Amino acid sequence: MDAGSIIIGSVKKLTKSFKGGVRLIEHKYTKNSPIERCPDPDTVSISLTQHIGVMCRPTVKAGDRVLEGQLIGEIPGGLGCPVHASVSGTVLRIEEVTTAAGGTSYNIVIENDKQHCISPEVQTFGKKLSEAGSDEIIAAVRRAGIAGMGGTAFPTHAKLSASRGKADRIIVNCCESEPFVCANHRIILEYPEEVIAGAKIMAAAVGVREVWLAVESDRRDEAARLSRHLQNGGIVSVRKISSKYPSGSEKQLVSALMGVEIGEGKTPIDAGCVVFNSETCMAVYEAFAKGLPLIGRVVTVDGDCVAQPKNLLVPIGTSMSHLIDCCGGLCNEPKKIIAGGPMMGTAQWDPDAPVTKNTSAVLVLSKFFDRESKLPPVCIRCGRCVRACPMKLMPLKIAAYSDRGQLDKCESFGALSCIECGCCTYVCPGGVPVAQTVARAKSAIIAKRRRAVSQGK
Ligand code: SF4
Ligand code: SF4
To answer: Which residue's CA lies nearest to atom 2 of ligand 1?
Structure first.
């Protein structure tokens, strides 16, 4: 037990925190809205690059009939996750698309027959957890195409493999500190047993004897709901962390709970733990218990332009415009559509962009949420960005060097440690786009390093 901590039942009473961060207005208008099944879309467009790693190779072609849960894209080799049909129907085409980040991807477009015909490939694991070996569990997670559903979309099977023999503990990230987003919150309230079961399956795969369910301190309903399904003395317990942004960031979560900093180039495994999102745990449970690949997820559809905000269970590949229609359409003039939260999400230029494995929210915001100042940005050296930075950086310095093109200086001030949380921009009274400038420096440094590697320097 950590010094000074007290466990009562399965809930640790002491709330832990991390340095920096900000308190945001929550705007969690759908926190009491139960998850609803999204009405069937006419088509889905399933990306072949919705994870970190190599692009999938399609295993189907235009005109093929596909069934729900059928493999439609496999990994040719290297890091990645296969993709599966989220509906039954007919493949219309495989098309080249431009992603929100400006890259190129290929999507498989399927016309939905709305019959929900399940593929014979969908088979339960067929063994009890106590009889399953680590390799078998990890292979099942890989087959199910599970990638981190909290944002990074890192292949879960690779994370499990990498942490075997190195991690002593799994931390389940139940923190959802981005405004508006309630998908995780609803999953924890409605499916606590499945989340816990998924975490235990991953504990068996990694070989750890301890699982911490990390919840934000002001989410008493989550802690209570999870605790109801825990046994005293079992391997799973609830830990509370301070409700501030970005508590959902892996590095801040580990810093708060373990008291160690995860700096540049380090991962939670360096602190002896591995972190999985709560929805990812549920996906692992679904794969193990029902043989279901990752073909759907819960998405919060909200923002001041959405008429009836909801939490929807959505087939992967559903267009954002369909989700907005299912929520009563638009009620204000939209300025921005964001996939994910307003702080770390990605602005979309195409309202028909599809939901991917890591889309936790679709937000449609009006100019009311646009923080662009009409005045030229100016740094008044107030130091607020330094106090807010959860990675203990000096964002104003990095931004200034970035503006002058001094990448070496940016690097020496730790630009590569930036987690792109946006706290520095949020607190800046001078309207300086600090986070964007630091992120630009980070990208330029990474590109420079890649160039040097390719030139053999
Ligand atoms: S918060 Fe803005 S004004 Fe204050 S030091 Fe940082 S960049 Fe300058
Ligand atoms: S965006 Fe980067 S520099 Fe700014 S507060 Fe977050 S981690 Fe620090």
So the answer is: 428
